[in-house]
Amino acid sequence: MTLSSENSPPPPLSWVVTNSPFRDPGDPPAQHDDNAQNPHQDHKKLVKLISTEQCSNIIDSSLNKTGFGFYHVMITILCICSWSTDGSQPMLLSLIMPVVKDLWNLQSHHISLMVFALYFGMLVGSLLFGWLSDRFGRRKMLIVTNTGVCAAILLQSFAINVWMLIVCLLLNGFFAGGSLPLVYSYYTEFLPVKGRGFFLTCLACSWSVGELLVSGFAWAFIDRVGFRWVIRYSVWPCIVVYMILPFALTSPRFLLKRERRVKSLAVLQKLAKINCADQHSVRQLVHDEYQQHRASLGTSGGDSSEGTLSNEDSPSSAALCPEEKFDSRIMQSTETPHSSPEEETPLKDDAHVNQTYSASLPSDKEATTFLPTGVDGNNHDDSKLFQLQQSAANDDGMSADNGIVCGSSTSHDQFRYGRIMGLFLNGYWKTTFTLWALWFLASVSLYCIQVFLPEFIDKKGITIDKYPLIFLSSLGNIPGVIAAALVIDFIGRKLSLLIFCVGCAITMIPFGFFSNFWLMLTFLVLAKFFMYGAWGILDAIVPETYPTANRSVGNACANAMARIAGMVTPFLLEDALLKFDSIWPALGMASGVIFVTGIVAMNPWLPETKGKKIE
């Protein structure tokens, strides 16, 4: 009899349950019935037999079935507190700059160095921690960055001169910039597809929440308690993050990219339990994906498998379905262990099979060192069974080097664990450059309004209290983000970004014409309404665009472009304000740049991610 392993479908569920090498010796014998009432009880064994893409489908389906529940509320609070701390730092700097300038008799270049230090630290921190989070996990790096931000803010409040303050701002920016890409990557990987754009855009409100809390406290107490207590007040959201982090789960998509499939499914089950959803749905999804995997292979390999046996002309063999043919080949190979070499296809030796199999095992504690052992004690026959299973996996696009565990995915090989070069492979370079341009341009416009608003008011020669204007103008931030979140899933990301950028450019110009407090406040609120709505959309686009293996690095590089803009903008604005003694050059630059941002958003190189699954 001639035995061939080409185009072989995977074994039936009954054979997997009984003969799987992951089966414990003390387990009771399984029922040889593929239609049993509880076929998904061995889902940990089945998940190792399907491709990585199918495991990703299981995660998507499980998150969609689980929905937005209690756990999502908990991590939403975590992400809001983390981002509000980071978002409050640029606003905090703009509030304390006039105070320390008078207190320490600083020059304009000292102010520019303070802004430069904060954003340079954010640049380095976002790149470093974005890479580290793709290597070691989002949750671990969130603990590190939150600790660093807390310590840096407290040190900043004890600064005795401008140079100590600049060093503290550098450290503050380093850890705050590091947490920015982590938060969105972590949050994205737990959200269901439906409504993902809404929740990601709403998360941008947390930046405005931090600004409102700091500016409101400064308005009420900075004249009474001094700028140092205003700085210390901004640290309290870090305490809330510390209270929630012990209950945060590791991202299931990150675990899947690290080939820890069983652990990934365990996270999904725990997530379903916390959200009071059906925990058994995860097991059923694994079973369904495995059955679809077998059915697709059995259908595609049906024609070629009919020529794999030498006695194919017999009526009994011709009447078999692909699954039954696979079972018969398994039985015939185990019943004839001493067949002559002329009647069999040459097989690899057992040592090679065991070595390949051992290398393919995942790092989960549930299965680490098991090797195939046969029911009849014949290792040579079990190596044949394993090769039939491995051949079926290879026919489905699985890597022979990685055995039955690793699915050979192009994106997995080329986007391996935080490689910056992965942002330029498979045509991603066009999207990457477009996103970098969007973040740089939008950041220049944002920092013109956010950081130098007190300077603008001074240049206009208006004797009004700046703190009420800054606080009240921030009230337009949250409604703008909410409005963007409501439209982003209906008209798409790109068109929404265009509308908000053009709206910001139009409403920014009238601010320079008026000296009345309420008219200035009206147009400033409108400008920030559109500005922060545009930023909410940008924050949602980046994590949806890149795959899991490079999501944090993609976020980090986009944030790095924003920090570069933050470092360059102070020197441009200081030069413009001093040379022209007017706000119009700076204001015109801010309006023109945000208008160009909207035009770039319609670039065909930027994909529309509305309603699409993330990789």
TrEMBL record:
<feature type="region of interest" description="Disordered">
    <location>
        <begin position="1"/>
        <end position="41"/>
    </location>
</feature>
<feature type="transmembrane region" description="Helical">
    <location>
        <begin position="111"/>
        <end position="132"/>
    </location>
</feature>
<feature type="compositionally biased region" description="Polar residues">
    <location>
        <begin position="294"/>
        <end position="317"/>
    </location>
</feature>
<keyword id="KW-0813">Transport</keyword>
<feature type="domain" description="Major facilitator superfamily (MFS) profile">
    <location>
        <begin position="75"/>
        <end position="610"/>
    </location>
</feature>
<feature type="region of interest" description="Disordered">
    <location>
        <begin position="330"/>
        <end position="349"/>
    </location>
</feature>
<feature type="transmembrane region" description="Helical">
    <location>
        <begin position="469"/>
        <end position="488"/>
    </location>
</feature>
<feature type="transmembrane region" description="Helical">
    <location>
        <begin position="141"/>
        <end position="158"/>
    </location>
</feature>
<dbReference type="GO" id="GO:0022857">
    <property type="term" value="F:transmembrane transporter activity"/>
</dbReference>
<feature type="transmembrane region" description="Helical">
    <location>
        <begin position="585"/>
        <end position="606"/>
    </location>
</feature>
<keyword id="KW-0812">Transmembrane</keyword>
<dbReference type="InterPro" id="IPR005829">
    <property type="entry name" value="Sugar_transporter_CS"/>
</dbReference>
<dbReference type="InterPro" id="IPR036259">
    <property type="entry name" value="MFS_trans_sf"/>
</dbReference>
<dbReference type="Pfam" id="PF07690">
    <property type="entry name" value="MFS_1"/>
</dbReference>
<feature type="transmembrane region" description="Helical">
    <location>
        <begin position="234"/>
        <end position="256"/>
    </location>
</feature>
<feature type="transmembrane region" description="Helical">
    <location>
        <begin position="520"/>
        <end position="541"/>
    </location>
</feature>
<dbReference type="InterPro" id="IPR011701">
    <property type="entry name" value="MFS"/>
</dbReference>
<feature type="transmembrane region" description="Helical">
    <location>
        <begin position="553"/>
        <end position="573"/>
    </location>
</feature>
<feature type="transmembrane region" description="Helical">
    <location>
        <begin position="433"/>
        <end position="457"/>
    </location>
</feature>
<feature type="compositionally biased region" description="Basic and acidic residues">
    <location>
        <begin position="24"/>
        <end position="35"/>
    </location>
</feature>
<keyword id="KW-0472">Membrane</keyword>
<feature type="transmembrane region" description="Helical">
    <location>
        <begin position="495"/>
        <end position="514"/>
    </location>
</feature>
<dbReference type="InterPro" id="IPR020846">
    <property type="entry name" value="MFS_dom"/>
</dbReference>
<dbReference type="Pfam" id="PF00083">
    <property type="entry name" value="Sugar_tr"/>
</dbReference>
<feature type="transmembrane region" description="Helical">
    <location>
        <begin position="164"/>
        <end position="186"/>
    </location>
</feature>
<feature type="region of interest" description="Disordered">
    <location>
        <begin position="294"/>
        <end position="320"/>
    </location>
</feature>
<feature type="transmembrane region" description="Helical">
    <location>
        <begin position="198"/>
        <end position="222"/>
    </location>
</feature>
<dbReference type="InterPro" id="IPR005828">
    <property type="entry name" value="MFS_sugar_transport-like"/>
</dbReference>
<feature type="transmembrane region" description="Helical">
    <location>
        <begin position="68"/>
        <end position="85"/>
    </location>
</feature>
<keyword id="KW-1133">Transmembrane helix</keyword>
<protein>
    <recommendedName>
        <fullName>Major facilitator superfamily (MFS) profile domain-containing protein</fullName>
    </recommendedName>
</protein>
<dbReference type="GO" id="GO:0016020">
    <property type="term" value="C:membrane"/>
</dbReference>
